[in-house]
Amino acid sequence: MSGAGPSLHPGDWPSRAVLKFPPDAAPAPIPPPWDGVPTFANPFPIPEDIYQAALSYKVPLAIASVYAVTVTYFNWYNRQHGNKPWRIAKTRPFHAFVIFHNVFLAVYSAITCVAMVLCLKHSFPHYSEPNAVVGTIDALCKIHGPRGLGDAVTYRNDANTWSSLNSNIAMGSAGLPDTTDVGRMWNEGLAFWGWWFYLSKFYEVLDTAIILAKGKRSTTLQKYHHAGAMLSMWAGMRFMSPPIWMFVLVNSGIHAMMYTYYTIAALGYRVPNAVKRTLTTLQITQFLVGSTFAALHLFISYTVPVSVAYKFAEKVAPQVNATTISSAISSATDSATAALPTATGAAVAFLRKLIYRAAGDEGLAENIPVPGSPIPVYQQQHVVAAHPDHHNPVQNFFRHHDTVEKVKYRTEYQSVPCIDTSGQAFAVYLNLIYLAPLTLLFMRFFFKSYLRRTNPSAKHQTQHQALSKAAHDAAHGVEREIESLGKATEDGISSAVKKSKDTLRGRKINANGDVKDERHGSLSPANKKFVDNVNKKVSQRLQEIDENAESLTKRAKEIARDVVGKTEETKDKVESQYQQGKENVKQESEKPDKNARPEVKKENSNVKDEEPTSRPGTPGTPQSKKARQRAAKKAREDAEKGEGQSEEKNDLNLSYEAVQKPEKEPEPKDINNTLDKGEGKGLF
């Protein structure tokens, strides 16, 4: 396409080759340049094998997956344990580590942000230069080669080579972009600082570890951001996609502020909640701006000046004398040979470099050939030979010099896309897939909040206040919506983990996914069933024993009552018989003896008194002291005989001494109370 000057063409659809999936592996990521001199853009070299190995797709995919699952599990774990801080979180080394971690990331993020600002400064054309707008678009879309509109080096998928539309741009070793090229973002710091910023995304997961150790819950928005940032940075650096510079610049700037806030909070200083809300709003805003900016790269093309070679034929008048022609040719050759060193000297090369730099063609200035280098092919003239005539050699000699073909160059403007490879396009729409949910949610909540605040029935607010409040409400709504989805995901993962454990332990799972025969602790279903049967039998036996004990207690109470009643009756009978026997003994002892003779005092004191005898036919009344004793003894025997013949003689065997001095028997009420307390077993 030709035109009057460079122009911008937004709205062009990308080619189908660019949207290819899976993307082409070529080209491989190019390590940052290193010429032995440390600069702020490239402080030290990075080995090529390490640089490319870290950008393998397996690295971010594995780490992001493990991170997401681990954080989800520990969120569920903390919730099950009441969100209590872990033991390590209460130690002084942990507190010191938190402060060091936040200070390190704040300083590192600030340095990265400054490096990217300088990278853009060295890559963008000055606003006073001609075609500065299109030149800025070219600097944003093409990140390899020297600075200058149309001087970029791009990769051609159809030819699998690096090339430039400007034929004066030389390639480096192995056909790659020259590491000495200046003025494009990749060599000006993006290759170095972008790679380290990609690795820092793996280190930033310690933010989540600190939150979990404190017993808190890591928000779903934070988890989503960390996992997505790993994949987005990997794709941008692996395929050297142009929009990746903005992710590094904006994200590092927000992180510098965010980790400064965390450092102040960790030191014990109170930070207003407005600061935290502002940082959250900035993070969500960068999602919106970043996704929009990245998507525009797919639909933008622009024109660049291209020097196009055109061939034309020029006739040379033939000379009459062949000798004259030969001498003229020889003289011209000698003159050209003598003038060549002067024409290609160092002074001319230096002047040409100054002219190109003044015109803004840094790439041409850096690629001016040194003195003594061969003349490029496009600068050589070509002679077009006429058809030879074998029958006339002299005529053929003159015809050979009749027409000379020359090459002239004309500047034209060709349209080039902003995205060149399928890998660069893949990095763009991977970021869109990552940021699309957040963007859609934000816009949804923003419009709802904005329309509500600008409702005529609402309080009067300025346009700025309405936009600010709507943005804040939208950010809060996005966080709330993502949080609810995260909790549902955590519950689902915890259920899946539990079911997996059930399956590994031999538990049966129904078709619906429910546990059919769940284990209890370490017991298998069969052992659990056996234990339940044993417990059931033991419970039944204990119940029977309790019932028997209760019946025995009642029986014991009844027997005790009967014993007490019979004891009272026997006591009364024995006492009555004892009194009656006692009266009989008294009466017998007091009854006078009619047949007794007067007592005769014997002279001999050694003669003992003989017991008197009763007369025949009289009752057995004692006639002396011994007789009275025998009568009393007989009365006692009669009393004992009467007691033995009573109906209670088989139940109780009471002695005469027990009847004479009976012990105090307990009342039935006391015995019942004793049995009720379980102390009645002594009766049996």
From TrEMBL:
<feature type="compositionally biased region" description="Basic and acidic residues">
    <location>
        <begin position="583"/>
        <end position="613"/>
    </location>
</feature>
<keyword id="KW-0275">Fatty acid biosynthesis</keyword>
<dbReference type="GO" id="GO:0034625">
    <property type="term" value="P:fatty acid elongation, monounsaturated fatty acid"/>
</dbReference>
<keyword id="KW-0808">Transferase</keyword>
<feature type="compositionally biased region" description="Basic and acidic residues">
    <location>
        <begin position="660"/>
        <end position="684"/>
    </location>
</feature>
<keyword id="KW-0472">Membrane</keyword>
<keyword id="KW-0443">Lipid metabolism</keyword>
<dbReference type="GO" id="GO:0005789">
    <property type="term" value="C:endoplasmic reticulum membrane"/>
</dbReference>
<feature type="compositionally biased region" description="Basic and acidic residues">
    <location>
        <begin position="566"/>
        <end position="575"/>
    </location>
</feature>
<protein>
    <recommendedName>
        <fullName>Elongation of fatty acids protein</fullName>
        <ecNumber>2.3.1.-</ecNumber>
    </recommendedName>
</protein>
<feature type="transmembrane region" description="Helical">
    <location>
        <begin position="57"/>
        <end position="76"/>
    </location>
</feature>
<feature type="transmembrane region" description="Helical">
    <location>
        <begin position="244"/>
        <end position="267"/>
    </location>
</feature>
<dbReference type="GO" id="GO:0034626">
    <property type="term" value="P:fatty acid elongation, polyunsaturated fatty acid"/>
</dbReference>
<feature type="region of interest" description="Disordered">
    <location>
        <begin position="492"/>
        <end position="534"/>
    </location>
</feature>
<dbReference type="GO" id="GO:0019367">
    <property type="term" value="P:fatty acid elongation, saturated fatty acid"/>
</dbReference>
<dbReference type="GO" id="GO:0030148">
    <property type="term" value="P:sphingolipid biosynthetic process"/>
</dbReference>
<feature type="transmembrane region" description="Helical">
    <location>
        <begin position="97"/>
        <end position="118"/>
    </location>
</feature>
<feature type="compositionally biased region" description="Basic and acidic residues">
    <location>
        <begin position="634"/>
        <end position="651"/>
    </location>
</feature>
<dbReference type="GO" id="GO:0009922">
    <property type="term" value="F:fatty acid elongase activity"/>
</dbReference>
<dbReference type="GO" id="GO:0042761">
    <property type="term" value="P:very long-chain fatty acid biosynthetic process"/>
</dbReference>
<feature type="region of interest" description="Disordered">
    <location>
        <begin position="566"/>
        <end position="684"/>
    </location>
</feature>
<keyword id="KW-0812">Transmembrane</keyword>
<dbReference type="InterPro" id="IPR002076">
    <property type="entry name" value="ELO_fam"/>
</dbReference>
<comment type="similarity">
    <text>Belongs to the ELO family.</text>
</comment>
<feature type="transmembrane region" description="Helical">
    <location>
        <begin position="279"/>
        <end position="300"/>
    </location>
</feature>
<keyword id="KW-0276">Fatty acid metabolism</keyword>
<keyword id="KW-0444">Lipid biosynthesis</keyword>
<dbReference type="Pfam" id="PF01151">
    <property type="entry name" value="ELO"/>
</dbReference>
<feature type="transmembrane region" description="Helical">
    <location>
        <begin position="426"/>
        <end position="447"/>
    </location>
</feature>
<keyword id="KW-1133">Transmembrane helix</keyword>
